[in-house]
Structure formats: structure tokens, C-alpha cells
Design brief:
By secondary structure, this protein is mainly α. 59% of the residues lie in helices and 0% in strands. The protein has six helices and no strands. It is globular, with a radius of gyration of 21 Å.
Length: 142
């Protein structure tokens, strides 16, 4: 999809502002005040996934994909929430290439979708609480 001149202007403001303010903890707050039509969250997303000059825009290598799989399985074994920022930092430290949040997440969710297709699971089972001899159990209305 081609960029409009307005989005190019916004991208230029973000890039120039980040060059000046990157060392500050509130840099995205300051930039969002300069661009009222974009929220702070939108600016962060755009910077971390598209505009950051340190990003590698090439596809993930085979070694990076294996590394990501292993890291995520470690999180899943321990029943922890996946910390994508730490995984991105580890990939950059081990392979010297920084990828955006979106690229890693899309890769992982594509893997999960493929695993579900192979195993035949369409969705994870919904949570249903069990009530064992609870006197406060609600009875259905209908």
C-alpha cells in the first residue's frame, strides 16, 4: 500500500524527534503532543516495527526461528506470559539483528495456527468453572 504524503510527514516527524529525544524516558509523550492525530501507542508501534533504523527488515533466518521457538517453549513450560521484548533482545544479542515486535509475534502465531491444523484442535477449550457441592451455585433461569 503506497504511503500518503501525510503519513510520510508524520513518519519524518517521528524519526527526527527520536533522533533528538531517544535518550529521554518520555520521548513518546513529547512526540504524541507534536502529532495530535496519533496516539502515543500508535507512535510506539510505528517506531518499533517500521521506522527504527536499527530494525532488520529481512525475514527471520532458520536459526532465529529455532531460537524463538525454544525461548517461547521455555515460557510455556513454566506457564509464564511470553515476554516478547526479552525475546527480541536475546535474538539481537545472539544474532546481531533486531526485528520488530510484530514480526516475531506474527511468526509465532502462524506456527501456532499450523500446529492447531495438524493436531485438529480448532480452538483452546473455553474456561468453565466447576462447582462441587457449593450451596451458592446459581440455577439457570430458563
Amino acid at each position: 500500500m503506497p504511503q500518503t504524503s501525510k503519513s510520510r510527514d508524520i513518519d519524518a516527524i517521528i524519526v527526527n524527534s527520536m533522533k533528538k529525544l531517544q535518550h529521554r524516558s518520555n520521548c513518546f509523550d513529547i512526540i504524541s503532543r507534536k502529532i495530535p492525530e496519533c496516539s502515543k501507542r500508535q507512535i510506539i508501534f510505528r517506531w518499533r516495527n517500521v521506522l527504527d533504523p536499527c530494525l532488520c527488515h529481512e525475514p527471520l533466518s532458520f536459526q532465529e526461528r529455532n531460537f524463538i521457538d525454544n525461548e517461547i517453549f521455555e515460557y510455556l513450560k513454566c506457564n509464564k506470559i511470553i515476554n516478547w521484548r526479552k525475546i527480541i533482545e536475546k535474538v539481537e544479542k545472539n544474532y546481531g539483528r533486531r526485528h520488530g515486535d510484530r514480526k516475531l509475534k506474527y511468526y509465532w502465531f502462524k506456527v501456532r495456527k499450523y500446529q492447531r491444523e495438524i493436531t485438529g484442535k480448532t480452538k483452546e477449550p473455553p474456561f468453565t468453572p466447576t462447582f462441587n457441592n457449593n450451596p451458592f451455585k446459581m440455577q439457570p433461569i430458563f
